[in-house]
Amino acid sequence: MRIATYNVNGVNGRLPVLLRWLNETQPDIVCLQELKAQQDNFPEQAIADAGYNAIWHGQKSWNGVAILARGMEIQELSRVLPGDPEDSHSRYIEAIVNGLTIGCLYLPNGNPAPGPKFDYKLKWFERFTQHAAGLYASGKPVVLTGDYNVMPTDLDVYKPERWVDDALFRPETRAAYKNLLAQGWTDAIRKLYPDQKIYTFWDYFRNAYGRDAGLRIDHFLLSPTVDSRLKSAGVDRHVRGWEKTSDHAPVWIELAD
């Protein structure tokens, strides 16, 4: 089974890229972030024509998350991260697909930091960590994936000295990610490639993709029963080079049946 995560940076504007990638790789489960589409403006029919069922939580102009499944039922569990009834951002959706609990997230960027946006990022991260603790304690097979907007270590960022004050790399952000991992989750990419430079995002500016000046901010965290099934993982880096593509590349894992 192949599971992928992809920050599409606008699901309608980049629909041809998304459909091309789905047709090329045919992942079984896909988590999308940054739909930038209202709930009734999600391209459900085009996704269905590509062979996928879908659930999604949209938001006008910003955010938005979705889970797609190729020929499988999606049992939606939640489309709101618990802990703040006033939070109106569409940043989390959770479902059961083929026996796996899938949490798809788009963690806040947090810039400029310090400031209110950074405070919101850390509070959201704390809520997510609390929710993840409950999922982990359940003992069920769980995959938490998406755009975490965190570069966990120096290895995950091109020229880390330039990012020391950025919300994605500040000590508080990295400490929050480390605290989440301490519950027992496995970072799939780092398990298989502990010392390798791997990026999932390249800015549109300054020829970042051409220079490979990237960041690793899209992550797969696996519970123990999923970790034991992990066969391979990677980044479809070439998709970032397509015309009118997202600034992220799809990331995927492969699990033994």
Automatic annotation (TrEMBL):
Fetch the InterPro entries from UniProt.
AP_endonuc_1, AP_endonuclease_F1_BS, Endo/exonu/phosph_ase_sf, Endo/exonuclease/phosphatase, ExoIII-like
**What protein am I looking at?**
Exodeoxyribonuclease III
The GO biological-process annotations, alphabetized, read as: DNA repair
Cofactors required: Mg(2+); Mn(2+)
Q: Which organism is it from?
A: Mucilaginibacter limnophilus
Q: Where is this site: Interaction with DNA substrate?
A: 248
Q: Which family does it belong to?
A: Belongs to the DNA repair enzymes AP/ExoA family.
Q: Where does Mg(2+) bind?
A: 7, 34, 147, 149, 247-248
Cite the EC number: 3.1.11.2
